[in-house]
Amino acid sequence: MHPDHPTRRRTLRTLMAATMTMACALHGVALAQDAYPNRSTTVMVGFSAGGAVDLVARQLGQALGKQFEQPYVIENRAGATGTIAAEAVARAKPDGYTLLLGTQSTMVVAPSMYPNLRFDPIKDFVPVSLVASVPLVLVVHPSLPLHTVQDVIEYAKSKKGELTYASSGLGGPQHVSMELFNAMAGVKMVHIPYKGEANAITDLLGNQVPLMFSNLPTLLPHIRSGKLRAIAVSSLQRAPSAPEIPTVAESGLKGFEALTWFGLYAPAGTPQNVVSRLEQGVKQALTDAELRARMAEQGATLEGRDSAAFRQYMQAESVKWGDLIKKSGIKPE
């Protein structure tokens, strides 16, 4: 057919029009993604309002909202160690407008304890940024003659598996931290799970249970008042809010680390440029003076690890706690 034949010309015009339409559509999608966020974003939290995870989410959301000039709304869907909220986000549209503020309990401990979860933390999420972490502190009732990690180890050995410890519940950071201590120290203490951290602390203050790990900011007032005695913190470095308390690692259990951490996640399939925008947004948000002051009040360490570094950290945490749960024989109730 001759190049100037009318049919050939019509075909070429049709192809050109289709190509331009597709290019415009793709350009429109790119513009929409580049404009993120152009409306309200929901950040889901798997724990009750007023708790540590909720407070971090609200402070981060406020800082992101100030930066992006769009609201970041916190939605609490408490229950099942945060996995109800995580499943909802895993099934959400991957456009950056439904996010999760997840913790180690939800994203690395629960999957090892509950193999039938309906989401995979590695496959179903994009880790955006590790936002912050909080150390735990090992405390004892002051009636006990224990002042150091080695004192606790020797005392536990002398009790021959009868020494008890409290936690906020099965699989929580207080529980797995003490099981890590047991494994590394070669001792066996008996777990007494409570329905929440407050109940456990109440019995510890009343000398109904002798010791526990719990979040440092929660216990610091009781330590300062002398109602509890601090033995060591669970971070690798001493906590800025209590530099006088040594670490477990420097006290004889080299490499010991157990943190409560908070990370921002998006559903798998979220466009990379949206993830990058969120990642940079968190990084910038963590420079906000008001957010930094509030986090410091809570004893939190600001992390700000980017997506790639957070993914590596999460994978390492999954292996670490998964192995511990298997070896310790921790089972769901």
TrEMBL record:
| InterPro entries noted in UniProt | BUG (IPR005064), Bug_dom1 (IPR042100)
Signal peptide (from-to): 1-32
> Which CDD domains does the entry link to?
PBP2_Bug27
Keywords (A to Z) from UniProt: Signal
UniProt entry tagged with the keyword Signal? yes
Tell me the domain of life: Bacteria
Keyword flag Cell inner membrane: no
Which family is this protein grouped under? Belongs to the UPF0065 (bug) family.
Name of the protein in its database record? LacI family transcriptional regulator
Which species does this protein come from?
A: Bordetella genomosp. 13
